[in-house]
């Protein structure tokens, strides 16, 4: 179900943060939904900025772009960079090799550093 069709319902759930997928090809376009949705004061958005669905390691600058574009919509203080889901597809099946997982997390950390530098000038 598209995020645009359920975001109002999701925002009624009283939580401190919403974790959403935002890096995989199925959901990356949905960042635009947040232009018309409003977080309550004190709530955070934790978008996935690296994907669990591919073995390609994201470039840190792409990760930074994903963070910055959402931070400019919902406020820089309301975004924490996260991952799309987890890397395991089940207890005994890994879609992404551990060395790639770590490389993706390094890209997330570097991308967050770049985004912070841009957003907190």
Index terms:
two-stranded antiparallel ribbon, 3-stranded parallel sheet, 121 residues, 15% strand, alpha/beta
Can you tell me about this structure?
- This protein has 121 residues and is of the alpha/beta class.
- The protein is 37% helix and 15% strand.
- It has helices at residues 3-10, 60-74, 98-119, and strands at 17-20, 44-50, 82-83, 88-90, 93-94.
- The protein has a 3-stranded parallel sheet.
- Strand 2 (44-50), helix 2 (60-74) and strand 3 form a beta-alpha-beta unit.
- The longest helix is centred in the last third of the chain and has 22 residues, at 98-119.
- The model has no long low-confidence stretch (mean pLDDT 94).
Largest sheet: 3 strands, parallel
* Count of DSSP-assigned helices: 3
Q: Which descriptor suits the 3D outline? A: globular
Q: Report the count of strand segments.
A: 5
Query: How far is the first residue's CA from the last residue's CA?
Result: 37 Å
- Helical residue percent band: 25-40%
Secondary-structure map with pairings?
Blueprint (H helix, E strand, L loop, with lengths): L2 H8 L6 E4 L23 E7 L9 H15 L7 E2 L4 E3 L2 E2 L3 H22 L2
Parallel strand pairs: 1-2, 2-3
Antiparallel strand pairs: 4-5
Helix pairs in contact: 2-3
Summarize the entry for a quick read.
With 121 residues, the chain is an alpha/beta fold.
């Amino acid at each position: 179900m598209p995020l645009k069709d359920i975001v109002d319902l999701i925002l009624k759930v009283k939580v401190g943060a919403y974790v959403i997928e935002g890096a995989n090809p199925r959901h990356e376009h949905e960042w635009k939904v947040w232009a018309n949705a409003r977080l309550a004061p004190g709530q955070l958005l934790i978008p996935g900025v690296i994907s669990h669905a591919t073995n390609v390691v994201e470039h840190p600058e792409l990760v930074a772009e994903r963070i910055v574009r959402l931070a400019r919509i919902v406020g820089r203080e309301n975004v924490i960079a996260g991952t799309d889901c987890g890397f395991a597809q089940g207890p005994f099946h890994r879609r992404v090799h551990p060395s790639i997982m770590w490389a993706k997390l390094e890209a997330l950390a570097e991308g967050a550093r770049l985004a912070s530098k841009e957003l907190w000038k």
